[in-house]
């Protein structure tokens, strides 16, 4: 009988449990077995014998797996009684930190790459945003030049060999060897500058200069240099050396407003860059260092000295021989430049934005024909200057403005101040209170409401909603007067009463229909012109009455299409308004401006800060303003005084020169049933609006002492 076969046991390393004496089971084993029994109900049974499980668990406990090893803190030896210092998170998860840093780096590289890739490579070849504009008057006479000069791009491969050689020799000798940034060139520049004790040589390559000219500013900073280097490296990967050189030569600045080699060749030698000689190429290459200071037109000696430096550099690089350099230095002739033109004037500054809208994206010089009349402009400047010299000190008037236009809005003269060289601020286009010249809109609104020039209005002291307007010097008719009389005498109280009757909204709507764009007060003070507006816009509104249609858009370009098509004004309102404007000039506050066929209105603001006269004769509409920039009060100057005299002298000159056709009497335009004689038409009025031979007036109560100073009239 054979012995019983004992079950095979796995060959495992002895465990603490195996070494324990028979009958003794450690608490750990009991706990492990209990845990196993519980786990059996939750997990599928293992195919391995149960006897292997404790050994496997112990082995796992002794040798942690890879995942547990990553989560296990490194052992740190500590002295007895001391707690272990916590390990930083970045040391616990090094692979995660490394991956995060790499992701951020790749993201930054991707963003920079996308930005560089989107750069317009042909920007250096595009026209300038502000090309040269030559403004000419209506007779073709040049009056101003503004902007920078740039011609069409050049192709470096089609130039004489000496031309690119000159620029490479003086600006970037290692141009064909580096990749946009030249470390050797930077070291050489640092050494040269240290020896010179200042900036004697630059370290930027031609590619870096192109990057700066096309995409960056001239501001010197480390940030800009870093951007410049980065863009230069990018350009070298996208463009060939010839393409880089072509873009550089097409955009670099050569002084006198000339950008690009083609513009500089035309400006200084009156020839194309394909025809440049060695000496001419060297002179142009020398300008890049200091174009404004070395421009041949302003500093021929400095330009020639710099040319010789470039020729020597060309000899050193082997581009030419010494004999060629000597001959080239003697063969350069600088062409005389074009006649100098003013860069600005009040009219030029005003019309340039209009010209820019129709000339963007063009090479070379663009001639723009304007509406300016040189004779009228010269006469306007002369009259303003003379009147201020004669009366300015005595009346405390330091500035004046004048704008003259045709009824269709063509501006033929503009004076924005006493002297453009002293102050370029255009007072003709600046906003000031118009005073009683705004009453044009009040009375026109009344006519549109069905009133006529003979409709009655009370000319007596009034207080409306706490507002107490006053007539000039406190003079009132003390009775109802026709609208035409109140308008001619510029009665403030009548205008406020009229504004209250028809409402501010109707007046504002009327002003808007005549082209006024500025903000207008919505209370009754608007009747006296308390809302600032420009003299140009105000004069254009009067031009609408002269033209019989509105709105009139003031403009300075000979070729012009109005943004809004004017619409004819009503016959009755037009005839009535013209009748009142004629009355104001022939017998009212504007009598100082009276000439045959004149229409107009005075305006004076509170405390004599502004004085205006606006009106027309024939086909010439003129607005005049006088005052002070610091808003100081003038010495009793009213619209019917100095402004009216300036207006009359200027308009008289134009009438005598042009002999415009006389305007038909306005009464003929009125419907027969509306022609009513003005009872005061045979009584001339003074500048204060009162009859010069006034019969005894009824006693009128004095206005309260706390009323404001004389408001506009």
TrEMBL record:
**Pathway entry:** Cell wall biogenesis; peptidoglycan biosynthesis
Which species does this protein come from? Answer: Phenylobacterium conjunctum
Q: Which residues form the Penicillin-binding protein transpeptidase domain?
A: 402-617
PANTHER family with a match to the protein in the record: BINDING PROTEIN TRANSPEPTIDASE, PUTATIVE-RELATED, PEPTIDOGLYCAN GLYCOSYLTRANSFERASE
This enzyme's EC code(s): 2.4.99.28
**UniProt-listed SUPFAM superfamilies:** beta-lactamase/transpeptidase-like, Lysozyme-like
Q: Where is the composition biased (Low complexity)?
A: 23-33, 690-702
Q: Which reaction does it catalyse?
A: [GlcNAc-(1->4)-Mur2Ac(oyl-L-Ala-gamma-D-Glu-L-Lys-D-Ala-D-Ala)](n)-di-trans,octa-cis-undecaprenyl diphosphate + beta-D-GlcNAc-(1->4)-Mur2Ac(oyl-L-Ala-gamma-D-Glu-L-Lys-D-Ala-D-Ala)-di-trans,octa-cis-undecaprenyl diphosphate = [GlcNAc-(1->4)-Mur2Ac(oyl-L-Ala-gamma-D-Glu-L-Lys-D-Ala-D-Ala)](n+1)-di-trans,octa-cis-undecaprenyl diphosphate + di-trans,octa-cis-undecaprenyl diphosphate + H(+)
Basic and acidic residues composition bias: residue spans: 703-713
Q: Does the keyword DNA damage apply?
A: no
* Acidic residues: compositionally biased ranges: 1-22, 34-45, 54-71
Identify its protein family. Answer: In the N-terminal section; belongs to the glycosyltransferase 51 family. In the C-terminal section; belongs to the transpeptidase family.
- Return the protein name: peptidoglycan glycosyltransferase
Q: Name one GO molecular function term.
A: glycosyltransferase activity
